[in-house]
Amino acid sequence: xxxxxxxxxxxxxxxxxxxxxxxxxxxxxxxxxxxxxxxxxxxxxxxxxxxxxxxxxxxxxxxxxxxxxxxxxxxxxxxxxxxxxxxxxxxxxxxxxxxxxxxxxxxxxxxxxxxxxxxxxxxxxxxxxxxxxxxxxxxxxxxxxxxxxxxxxxxxxxxxxxxxxxxxxxxxxxxxxxxxxxxxxxxxxxxxxxxxxxxxxxxxxxxxxxxxxxxxxxxxxxxxxxxxxxxxxxxxxxxxxxxxxxxxxxxxxxxxxxxxxxxxxxxxxxxxxxxxxxxxxxxxxxxxxxxxxxxxxxxxxxxxxxxxxxxxxxxxxxxxxxxxxxxxxxxxxxxxxxxxxxx
Length: 343
Ligand SMILES: *Cc1c(COP(=O)(O)O)cnc(C)c1O
What we know:
Elements: H1 4-7, H2 10-14, H3 21-24, H4 54-64, E1 71-74, H5 77-88, E2 95-100, H6 105-112, E3 116-121, H7 130-135, E4 141-147, H8 159-168, E5 172-176, E6 198-203, E7 216-219, H9 222-231, H10 239-248, H11 251-273, E8 278-281, E9 288-293, H12 296-305, E10 311-312, E11 322-326, H13 330-341
Parallel strand pairs: 2-3, 2-4, 4-5, 5-6
Antiparallel strand pairs: 1-7, 6-7, 8-9, 9-11, 10-11
Helix pairs in contact: 4-10, 5-6, 11-13
């Protein structure tokens, strides 16, 4: 890996971050807070939240098995995705490489930040070799994006190849594990201690059932986390989100949901395979699956008429005539199936 100093944007390396009232007194016990121009009434909403979300990080650390200092929390994973660009890529000069097809936000954020985005097509099994990804890089490539399990394809990218990329590439490798809870594969977040150029993204939006509260996690080396913390908005995760997240970090509840969802996934996929509209269901390690159908647009429109929304991915590379279907509750899945049987 290159020195972090070489990878960080020069203006960010030099940046003196905003120092908030709550940052400065750190450590000492205090009970009179006259430092932040807050209203003394309306507890607890009158107070600015902890800018570094310490209590929440302790709770997440226990569940995820990664120490607090290896953790950045943001307003959804999307904040961490954007920060990778704002901290490490020079607009108009640097580029990033990503598997294709994949989650759309990596490209949107590249475009917003005026950074060249280099998609590298997966093979027909939706896999990729380290060699192919590395061949797309040059001296201005700052990051490689790998989503595993991948969205919209659903499959894990082979860890052997991901590890080869991490070990060979001189820049950052971002592995988005938004769906890793649904997979049997050992998560790569447990390896951030070993690889200083690895960033792993997690979210509370999927298995943890908390898309509404907006909480994303980036796991990475503490020196990298410090850079994210320097650039983020001072109070990027609000108090209600911090409180609710602590309340929701109950692995037993999530395990129960996962069992139900995975059981439904098996049932739904078997039933879809029997339908005349189904040409192929692709293997999945996530809480959704990709299915190639006879006419994606017509089936999509038909389902919309019935008030059932799936994702039409037919315009995405390698996904011609494909719908992406999320596993719903038992009754939602039954409604989908019954509609498709009547098609
Ligand atoms: C849904 C999803 C996310 C979650 O983003 P949030 O901003 O945390 O809700 C991240 N990455 C991928 C690949 C996703 O599909």
